Amino acid sequence: MLKKTAVLLSSLLISSSLSAHTLWLVPSHYVLSKPDSWISVDASAANMTFVPDKGIALKSLTLYLPDGSAKPVTELYQGKRKSMADVQLAGDGTYRLELANPVRFFTSYEIDGERKRLLANKQARTAQLPTGATKVETVQMRSRNFAYITVNGPTDTVLKLQGQGLELSSNTHPADVVAQEALQFVFSLNGKPQAGVKGVLSFAGELYRNDAGRVEFETGADGVVSFTPAQAGRYLIEASYSAATASDLADKLRESLTYSFEVALP
After folding, report:
1. Global pTM?
2. Is pLDDT of 250 > 50?
3. What is the number of other CB atoms lying within 10 angstroms of the CB of residue 209?
4. Which is nearest to 251 in space by CA: 152, 158, 140?
């Protein structure tokens, strides 16, 4: 469990598995008071938190309405450094913006000393692997990137766990997060708290700090990470979980997520 006294680490000390480009979504507003307002959303794959680097496809960007129904986002633009979307929030309540990849399977193998990869699960790989392939391994992968936006009164429908893959919940509604007040996040896998979820918590402005101010964490058996934000601003959680699996479709499981949120002034 991450304590308030956790050591702040520079970006150079982040594990190699988490230091690659991270995909994030950042709404222009996390809390609004006027229905029918428009927000803009920036998205990028980048090494530094909220510093755009590579534009990404947003075709699967989805807006979940306060009643839980889903609506595709159609006002999209993909740039070289970042991608953008315009989204209208028609009524009161809490919305979830999510860019998610469905379950995918990657089979890697070695042939003649060269490492190669197939888009196939364990059942499909047999017919596709070349004769003499060695060190064969199939990984099941899934990722989701999300943020919450609240118009007037906060609601809880879009915060509920779906029970599929790696998910994140909190003891504080996203619209009520305040600097200098303790937060508790729970990481769940397929609906149950999960130990061994590894991640990094960072916040905006690291381009202008000598110390990036990042904090690494790993969950215990209760899946909990505790954190007290020292200052207001925008924060990012990037987390992943990997393990061997006894599945008929894969040898390993790899789940990941990123979550951006705003901390208000006390």
Report:
1. 0.89
2. yes
3. 10
4. 140
